[in-house]
Amino acid sequence: MTASTASDELKASTCLEEMGEPQSQAVGQLNPKVFDYTPAQTKRLLRKIDLRLLPMLTILYVLSFMDRSNIGNARVAGMNDELQLTGSQYNIALTVFFFPYSLFEVPSNIVLKLMRPSWWISILVVSFGTVLTLQGIVKDYEGLLITRIFLGVAEAGFFPAATYLLTTWYCRWEYQTRVGIFFSAASLAGSFSGLLAFGIQHMDGVAGLGGWRWIFILEGILTVVIGVSVPWVLPDSPETCSFLTEHEKAYIQYRLSQDAGTATGQVATHDKFQWRYVKELLLDYKIYLGIIMYWGNSICIYAFSFAAPNIISQLGYSAANAQLLTIPIYFLGALVTYFFSKMADKHRTRWVFVVLPFCISGIGFIALLAIPHPALPGLTYAFLFCIPAGLYPAVIGCISWIGNNLAGPWKRAIGMGFLMTAGNLGGAIGANIFLDEQAPSYQLGYGLSLGVDLAGIIAALVLRFLILRVNKKRAAMPEEEVRARYSDDELLAMGDKSPFFKYVT
What's the pLDDT at 270? Predict the structure, then answer.
């Protein structure tokens, strides 16, 4: 063996270790172009991608989550009084958002695959910013319902598009950290929304409009302005971006193609739509267990987001102070979400970082059910911190887990859209469980949230058991036997059904 050959093998081994591949993989299977990438160089390349993708996705998700949940801030600022809404009408206004929001997620991800992602995301952001602005000039309950329905249509595609877009850039054990960074924006959105609402509601009377109207109008205009810039800021794919060299683009594509979890497996990075992907998804138990885990988040967190300012105001604080006191709750949620996401990728497992966060939120719900409301307002406020701190990391673990275990671009795009379609229907339930007549105890709200929280834990444990069993069976299959039955093209087309594909646990 020559010195240069030995050096190439060492570099190839180091590259594979960075990708999570066993070092025993035959060097001859590697593309020679990747031999000169060390772990340090790979890390620098990923940081380069992070700086182009994550800031914009984070800003957009802050706007998205803020625009759908700031109705809770508007309620505290006087919306219900001016529009003469009853408690049930307010809950219906929350509920109608979720039906179009859920139903349009899969179609949106199909459109995402057919056009430039940055242009589609820009269209979505400008659309929901425009609808939110119009929500600030509604005159009655019916007008509020119409704008909430169209807000659901416009917002439907952003989150599944953003989470799918990241799978086209990052390998499986790099993915959750990146999703965690921009999803932490959901918590930051709660903080930012409360802070903005605190300031904006003091515009009450400006141009003859109530302060709650200015919350919608100004936040909507901000969303539109930022949405217009998306096509010039957000890169579409490793193949078409302008900030990577040709060598770097090839390396990113190579890493993704090798990300099957085994030395012999590969996954497709490009494919054509086939109806069999839809059939496979409808028969895939992983999706349905993922939906249960997703409900463990969506039912609870939407209920909490809409009710939190009101819950805090009932502890004896003014409306303005209630807005401010939501900020530290969501800020902690953002920090914990990033921490758990980082740990999940570092330890190369998903289930622990779904179950443990659900346990944190479960403790919070148990405590809030046990506290004799309205006594002990300080203790009530303290346990509110457990809710986003547990629920946000859990749903990120769920999305990453299911996304990691769907192979083939079309199957993953449709599968993630379907997961969120069914999962986000939980928001329609969450919008109706904190009932005014049960204030301040909210037995239904806290009790149902605890129940679906526990269901999420059980679903995670069942999924882990099932995929461990599949992985064990696949590991026992001799490679020679598999290759005798299937060609390389057939194995590639099988995606995550390939005997060489190892599921993430």
Answer: 53
Omega of the bond prior to 440 within 30 degrees of 0, cis?
yes
Residues 265, 16: Cα–Cα separation, whole Å:
13
Amino acid at 152: G
Dump pLDDT digits (tens) for 364-414.
Answer: 999 999 998 888 888 999 999 999 999 999 998 998 898 888 877 777 777
Tokens representing residue 33 in the block = 């172009």
Q: Is 134 exposed, middle or buried (0-12, 13-18, 19+ CB in 10 A)?
A: middle
Which whole number is the average pLDDT over 79-95?
A: 87
Q: What does the chain come to in residues?
A: 505
Kindly tell me the burial class for residue 51, based on how many C-beta atoms sit within 10 Å of its own C-beta (0-12, 13-18, 19 or more): exposed
Per residue in 245-303, pLDDT (tens digit) is: 888 888 888 887 776 544 454 554 555 656 666 777 777 888 999 999 999 989 998 88
The Cβ-side half-sphere exposure at 459, using a 13 Å CA radius, reads 27
Q: pLDDT of 213-240, one tens digit each?
A: 998 999 999 999 999 999 999 998 888 8
Amino acid letter at 131?
V
Q: Report angle CA 84, 88, 90 to the nearest 5 degrees.
A: 60
List all residues 6 or more positions away from 1 whose beta carbon is below 8 Å from its beta carbon: none
In this structure, which CATH number among 3.30.300.30, 1.20.1250.20, 1.20.120.790, 3.40.1280.10 belongs to the domain 48-233+276-497?
A: 1.20.1250.20
Instruction: Identify whether the C-beta of residue 92 lies closer than 8 Å to the C-beta of residue 83.
Output: no
Q: Where are the domains of the chain?
A: 48-233+276-497
